[in-house]
């Protein structure tokens, strides 16, 4: 766990290229060989980090969805947590780096965790909710990668994509079919 927290700190501070076995080992006072034994390679470390980030972030998003459903929270909370996960928490940069580095199964931990979240929230049978989840995640990923420069180029406020995502979620909630349980 200390290695993954150190890797997360490196990711946020310096970017995905800094998440190496040597750098993480140096942060936690271990040897490169020790981490190599545990993770197998730098891509193994990055994949473990992606899984750790996805699980941590999806847990927080799950709580926000439940709060929103109960009237305590609001859809914007879910939007902000999702966008922050891909931007401030570095998940977008990490996923892109892993893919560009040739790690074909790089997205598996993220995709699997999002799938499990949708199933856990009992929304897998809803086309509306699965489609909204897909759109929200893709918007957050795109925003993390080029949202700032694109918003400037289009003379829009920096949070325009978040505003659009919130509107999409609210409209989806209004048109979602009512189930016997809810």
TrEMBL record:
Pfam families: TetR_N
Stretches assigned to the HTH tetR-type domain: 1-57
Recorded GO MF terms: DNA binding
Keyword DNA-binding attached: yes
Nuclease as UniProt keyword: no
Record field: transmembrane: none
Keywords: DNA-binding
DNA-binding region(s), residue ranges: 20-39
Protein name: AcrR family transcriptional regulator
């Amino acid at each position: 766990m200390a290695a993954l927290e150190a890797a997360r700190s490196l990711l946020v501070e310096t970017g995905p290229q800094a998440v190496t076995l040597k750098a993480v080992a140096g942060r936690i006072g271990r040897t490169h060989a020790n981490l190599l034994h545990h993770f197998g390679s730098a891509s193994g470390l990055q994949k473990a980090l992606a899984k750790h980030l996805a699980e941590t972030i999806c847990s927080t998003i799950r709580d926000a969805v439940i709060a929103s459903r109960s009237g305590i929270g609001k859809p914007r909370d879910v939007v902000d947590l999702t966008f922050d996960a891909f931007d401030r928490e570095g998940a977008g940069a990490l996923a892109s780096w892993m893919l560009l580095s040739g790690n074909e199964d790089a997205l598996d931990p993220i995709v699997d965790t999002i799938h499990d979240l949708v199933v856990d929230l009992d929304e897998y049978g809803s086309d509306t909710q699965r489609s909204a989840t897909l759109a929200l995640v893709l918007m957050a990923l795109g925003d993390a990668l080029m949202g700032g420069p694109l918003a400037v180029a289009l003379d829009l406020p920096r949070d325009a994509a978040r505003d659009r995502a919130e509107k999409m979620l609210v409209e989806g909630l209004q048109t979602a079919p009512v189930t016997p349980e809810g």
